[in-house]
Structures are given as C-alpha cells and as structure tokens.
Design a protein that fits this description.
alpha+beta; 11 helices; 3-stranded antiparallel beta sheet; 299 residues; Nucleotidyltransferase, domain 5
Length: 299
C-alpha cells in the first residue's frame, strides 16, 4: 500500500477488533497528547481473511488517508502470562496459543487475525492490547476463586474483562476521575467494575467473559449445581453446554425471542420479553450495589 506522509511525531495506528460476526477497524493519528480518529468501519465476517484487509486498504486509500505505521489488536484474554499490553513476537504468539483453553470463543479468532495482519503488513509492529490488563490490580481477595488451590497455580482465577473500555473511560475523565467509581459496560457482553483511585479492585466477570451479570445470550453467574444437572441429567457434553450458556441463555434464553433490549422493548405485551428486561436490570442493579459495598461508597 502506498504510504502518504504523516507528521514526524504522529503514528498512524490501525486498530482491529474481531467479534463473532464482525471485524471492526479504525484508523487513528496518535500523537503524544491525543489520538484522533481518521476512519472507522466494520466488515461483516465471522472469518476475516486477506480480502478483509484488502477492503480496509481500499477504504483508507479512497479517503486519501496515510497508510498505517502500526497495528493494534484488541485481545479478549491473554491467559495467566500476558497481563500487559505488548508488542507481538513469537513468544507472545506461543503464550496466546497456550491460553486458548481460557478463551475458546475469542482466542482462535484473535490469533488468526494476528497472523493475517502480520502476513499483510509484514514490516509493521503489531501490538496486543488485552481486555484483562486493566484488572491486573485486583487484590487477592477479589481474584482468588473458592476452589482447590492447586488450580490457582494453573491460572484458574478471576481475570475480569472489558478492561480497554474501562481504560478509555478513565482517560476521558482525566483529572476528574472520582476516587470511588463504578463502571458499567452494558452491551451484548456486560460487566460491572469497581475502581478505587483509578485501579480495578473488583469486577463481575471471572475466569472468562461468560460470568457475572445476565447478558444478551450469556447466562452470567450460575449455581454450579445447574451445570452439574445439565451434564448429568440432560447428557450435555462440554461443547453443547458451552453453546447453551454462551449463545442460548441470558435475555435470549429468558425471552425465547431475542437478546437485544431494543427488540425486547418493542414487545410490551410479551411477558417473557418484559421479564428478560427486568431480570437484566435487576442483575445490573444488584451488582452495582455490590461494587459500591466493596468500595465503601461511591463518588
């Protein structure tokens, strides 16, 4: 791709965020004091490929914008050994491969995109930005799970997610960040985080982004007995159980209609649709209350 010149103190960063059905991208001019969006878009695909990058390049070129000088990737889960944003090299790739059991839904797509980007932009630095990094400050009492401690050594613990969203909120607040802050990230995936003096001290998601509050199609936290019942009495294998809890539960499961609040709100006469909305709001409200208790109040 032909490179237009950008100011010497400015990096042109292409940010990539792959989801279950969409590859979102943004081009930013990043200087010492600010980042300015130059272009943003999305490609409907569940398997990004070389054609996806060709489409992004066409959009950049058509807008008369400079080519990227670095690539940033949102990575949902880095596992126990990748807890800070970093340049991607062979060692990082190996650790991401080892972390796949912690993120079977998000990890393979993220790895595939990293490899595609490296092949398409071989001379550009690739930076991995982890959703778990913001929560590295969780105290032991918040991240340790009440299971045999031998599992803790294998990385089975609370990690927390939506950390990039939390970082963005703190950045936008700047000097106005309150000492005791509750952040609610409410999308199809949703979580609530307690922030004390700019540091995460508790959060609703746990080992994976499946835990915590009720979500669009994810169950959130469940009594372990429910999972044992489904395994024992319904004969579900791990793959079927994962599909049920991550893709068929939450507001979608409750309503039998949709996990989208906008759709549910249009069905005022459907009691299950309204129950799904009420249960979601109740779950969020209860968790916000718990985070306020952890903080000893809110500012």
């Amino acid at each position: 791709m032909a490179r237009l010149r950008s100011p010497a103190d400015t990096e042109i960063v292409l940010a990539l965020n792959t989801g279950s059905s969409t590859l979102k991208y943004g081009l930013y001019a990043v200087g010492a004091a600010e980042a300015r969006e130059l272009l943003a878009g999305a490609i409907e695909t569940d398997t990004p490929d070389a054609a996806s990058f060709a489409q992004i390049e066409t959009a950049i070129r058509s807008a008369g914008l400079p080519a990227p000088s670095a690539i940033g990737h949102r990575i949902v889960h880095g596992g126990p050994h990748l807890r800070a944003h970093c340049l991607v090299d062979a060692g990082v790739i190996a650790k991401l491969e080892a972390a796949l059991p912690f993120a079977p839904l998000h990890g393979p797509a993220a790895l595939a995109l990293l490899r595609l980007a490296a092949a398409h932009f071989p001379d550009l630095p690739q930076v991995a930005c982890f959703d778990t990094a913001f929560h590295v400050t969780l105290p032991e009492v918040a991240y340790v799970l009440p299971i045999p401690r031998a599992l803790r050594a294998e990385g089975v613990r609370r990690y927390g997610f939506h950390g990039l969203s939390c970082e963005s909120i703190l950045d936008q607040l700047g000097a106005a960040v309150p000492d005791r802050l509750v952040i609610a990230h409410l999308g199809s995936g949703a979580s609530v985080t307690a922030v004390k003096a700019g540091r995460s001290i508790d959060t609703s998601m746990g080992l994976t982004p499946s835990g915590g509050i009720v979500m669009a199609s994810r169950s959130g936290d469940l009594d372990p007995g429910v999972i044992l019942y489904l395994l024992r009495e319904k004969g579900l294998d791990p793959a079927a159980l994962e599909t049920m809890l991550d893709r068929q539960s939450g507001m979608l499961g409750i309503s039998g209609l949709s996990g989208d609040l906008r759709t549910l709100a249009q069905h005022e006469a459907d009691p299950d649709a309204q129950l799904a909305i009420r249960l979601f709001c109740y779950s969020v409200r209860k968790t916000i209350g718990a985070m306020i208790a952890v903080l000893g109040g809110a500012d």
